[in-house]
Each structure stands twice: as structure tokens, then as C-alpha cells.
Amino acid sequence: MKIKSIELIEINLPLVHFFETSFGRTYERRIILTHVRDDDGAEGWGEVTCGETPSYSEEWTDAAWAVSERILAPMILGAEVESAGQIWDLMKQVRGNRMAKAALETAVWDLEAKKLEVPLWKHLGGVNREIACGVSIGIQDSVQQLLEKIKTELDAGYQRIKIKISPRWDYDVIKRVRETFGDIALMGDANSAYTLADIEKLKSLDEFKLMMLEQPLPHDDIIDHAKLQREIATPICLDEPIKSPDDARKAIELKSGKIINLKNGRVGGHSESKRIEKICRESGMPVWCGGMLESGIGRAHNIAISTLAGYRLPGDVSASKRYWHEDIIEPAVEVSEKGTISAPESPGIGFEVKRALIEKLAVRKTEIK
After folding, report:
1. What pLDDT shows up at residue 19?
2. DSSP string for 12-59
């Protein structure tokens, strides 16, 4: 397989409702799509999942565009590879920039699955066609607004509720949620908003018997998380510090947490996700697929990777309509009444890309040949 052209397209996609974390509010997503073709005319799609600013990670939209166009795409263009699994290695000499790498790598996985005429999830080694779904709900303007949103998602069938928390939005909020909805599957995501100085406050959350507390401490830490996990009963879920198979191995050895949120973009794409999933599965560490407010293309890749055996907990892979008035794929991603998504049986990502809508939403594009 030889990649003949790589197209980068930036689209602006307004959210149905703002999404707030400890980093701030997002009203609209600037999303970079990658479109690759090989010398046989086969094509595949990927998505850069970074944010508009370097808050969640060092990557951000404009930097990802520059590194993709000037450095990463030329490394892939024209290279002869036996399989999509070799694309990661072509970019190894570039440090970091995993979300930009993932967009190119996953696009080639989509292309290869289409050439083989198999669904991507099967090509990746997935075993569970039906995946369990949860939702992530941002910080709201009031607790009552949060409760209303949770009720809507529970009525829709979602199996797990994740709420964003921060030092100004934690104990009293979670208490109200428990009082209102009882023993639902509930977790809190702190997005690195706390330090070990907050250990007594984090201990106080044990009374709510949360499924997990996601990334309470700094984004690059696995040492203090191990200290915190020894002090609290709530399982810690690691997110930002797990960027590679080695990170996962070290965190498991240090007992830095009991669960890993395995975001496809954060670790560099399907090949690295598969390696981390294997390490975690063999160590008994459950993983689940986190979300980054992806469009349907990124969401389709998340569905595919979530079918691997190690993804044992409901992920943040939810319906298109929760985020977008109109998604850029068809059919839109839908969740069943029992809170599941079935991976499609069509080749590749299994969804048709709405090229006309992408052209309408595009604010810049370039093609590297």
C-alpha cells in the first residue's frame, strides 16, 4: 500500500449546548479532518481530536495543522507499507503530537479495512460488536440544570453518567445527584483540578461510592496518584498521563489507579491503543474509551476500537445528536434504548462521510501529493 495524497480540512462545528470542564467552556469545535488516498484510489478518513487551545494537552488546532502539513504527512506520503499497523513507525522520529499522528494513522486503518472489504472493528481485532455507552456532562449553570440533563440521559438509556467536577463543583453537587437518582452508575471527572493538598476533600467523596474518580491530580502525574489511591476507596481512573504502552505499564506497577481512560487520539491511534489495551487486559486493568467532542468520523473510530476485549466499562461514545445539530456522517450515531451502540457491518468505519456538508463547513483545506 502506498499513500498517494493526504488532504487536511478544518471545519467549524457548533455544539448543541456548551460543554464546560475545569479548563473552561466550549461552544464550537474547530476540527481537522484527514482524508487519505492510496495509489489504487482507495480512501480513508481520520480526525484530529485536540482542542482549540493547549489546555487538555500540549496539542491544539493550529499547531496540529502545521505539524500535520509540514512534517507528518510528508513522512507517510509515498512510503510503501505492508499494513496500516506500520504507519505509526513512519512518524516515530517526531516526539509527541500524538493526536495529529492518530488522525493520519486511523485514516489509513479505515482505508485498509475498506480495501479488504471488512468492518474496521473486525480488522482491529474487536470481539464485542455491541458496546456499552455512557455520557459525559459538563459543569452547568446550576445544580438543577445538571439534574435535568442527567434525567434526560438516563431516560435515553445511557448506562453510566460522568459529571465534570472542580473544587467549586464537587461534594454538594454529587450529594444532590445521589439524593435525586440513588444508586446510578456515576463517576466524577476532575480534569486535573486538585492536588494532594485536597486529599481530605477527595476522601469525603468516598461516601458516594462513585464508579471512579477520573484524573483528580496533575495531567502528567502517576506518583501522587499512587499516594492518593492508597488513601481513598474510590477507584482512580487515569487519563492524561497515559500516552504510551510504557506509561500504562508503569502506572499499573505503581498502582497509580485502578482504571484507565484510553483515548484513541491521546495515545496516537489504533496501533498504540491496541498495545495499551493488551497490557491492561493481561494485567486485569479495565479500560474504556473516552471522548474529545469528536465529529462522527472520530466517533466512528472510537466505536471500532471500543469493541476490543479489554474495553470492559461504558465509554463516552454517545449519540451524534447529543453534540451536533447535523453530524458529518450518515447514518448518524445512535444509541439503543438499553444504552448500547452496535458497530456497523459495512467496510471501514462503516459510515458514509457527507462530503458536501464538510465542504460547507470548511474554513481551510490543503492537499499534499
Report:
1. 79
2. EEEEEEEEEETTEEEEEEEEEEEEEEETTS-EEEEEE--BSSSSSSS-
Domain coverage including residue 17: 3-117+355-368
d(CA 288, CA 347): 24
Same domain, 162 and 298: yes
Q: CA-to-CA distance for 10 and 32, rounded, in angstroms?
A: 4
The answer to whether residue 218 is domain-embedded is: yes
Give the pLDDT band of residue 18 (cuts 50, 70, 90): confident
Query: Which runs of E-coded beta strand occur in 121-189?
Result: 130-132, 134-137, 160-164, 186-189
Measured CA to CA in angstroms, residue 8 lies from 31, 171, 193, 330, 344 at distances of: 10, 44, 34, 21, 26
Does pTM surpass 0.90? Answer: yes
Max Cα–Cα distance, the chain, nearest Å: 60
CATH code assigned at 91: 3.30.390.10
pLDDT of residue 348: 98
Q: Are 65 and 8 in contact (CB under 8 A)?
A: yes
Specify whether 9 is located in the same domain as 108.
yes
Same domain, 35 and 89: yes
Q: pLDDT at residue 25 above 90?
A: no
Give residue 20's pLDDT band: very low, low, confident or very high (50, 70, 90): confident
Domain presence at residue 172: yes
**316: domain CATH number?**
3.20.20.120
Give the pLDDT mean for 214-243.
Answer: 97
Please report the pLDDT score of residue 200 as a whole number.
97
Catalytic residues: 164, 263
**Alpha helices (H) in 306-350, listed in sequence order:** none
Tell me what percent of the residues of the chain surpass a pLDDT of 90.
Answer: 95
Does residue 196 sit in the same domain as residue 153? yes
Task: Fill in the amino acid letter for 230.
Answer: R
Whether the predicted pLDDT of 168 surpasses 80: yes
Q: Which long-range contacts (CB under 8 A, 24 or more apart) does 195-203 make?
A: 195/224, 196/224, 196/227, 196/228, 198/167, 199/228, 199/231, 199/232, 201/167, 201/170, 201/171, 202/228, 202/232, 202/234, 203/231, 203/232
